[in-house]
Amino acid sequence: MSTVDQARELAAFLRTRRERLHPDTVELPSRRAHRRTPGLRREEVAELAGVSVDYVVRLEQGRGLRPSPEVLEALADALRLSEDERAYLFDLAQQRPTRQAAEEEAGPLAQLVLDLSPLPAMLVNHRFDILAWNPEMAALMLDFGAVPPEQRNTLWLCMLHPGLRHFYRDRERSLREGIADLRASWAAHPGDKAMAQLVEQLTTGSEEAAQLWAKRDVRVNARGEKRLRHATEGPLTVAYEVLMPLQAQGQRLVIYRAADPESQRVLDAVIRRAQ
């Protein structure tokens, strides 16, 4: 898989977002004529966005247009895009500021947080490569140090590592959210060849990943819950928070804590293993 072809991906993304909408959702009169395609028609999107039908057609055909920020805002409103989807649209159209090169190593402040945190924590980059971790996170998931560096990636491990096949009790949800987060980062770093290689590995190595990638869902996961199953201590639910160090472009510090009293008991037992 090559790096991001923005025009082609923009075309596909607009089509999928149009096809998921129904006229009733956007307060358009429902035509009685039979609809040959799902969702809104191109002329309906054009009407809502205040652009010509021909312009929408050319966008969906990937004919090299670069919409202005004003047109993108109108399209985002017409298609009822979420904030993450809106950012993704602007990235594809190259209308967001160019990002600085991402840091590939843990900075001293992030490493200090990992060393001091009594909770499972790890530092990942924009590709979700695991840059650093504390013993508590290794005790909860697996010994990252024993994993080849090229496989030390949260999404690769979640989808392709046999030892984590049953780690996520909500596997489908975890995969769906992970792929949606990856797609947002993929569009934000269109020239990243390592990112393109990761997408290729996931979508060719996992039918689940390939199907989810084709949906073009976009979501940046800042916090939430994960239902896990530790190999020896049993099931638990963790709440996670994602912090972004100001000194390191693109890095994320992920911290897990127990979501309920029973999970706290299990997590305490896991943490004791790390001591």
TrEMBL record:
CDD domains in UniProt: HTH_XRE
Superkingdom field: Bacteria
One Pfam short name: MLTR_LBD
Ranges for domain HTH cro/C1-type: 39-86
InterPro entries on file: Cro/C1-type_HTH (IPR001387), Lambda_DNA-bd_dom_sf (IPR010982), MLTR_LBD (IPR041413)
Protein name: Helix-turn-helix transcriptional regulator
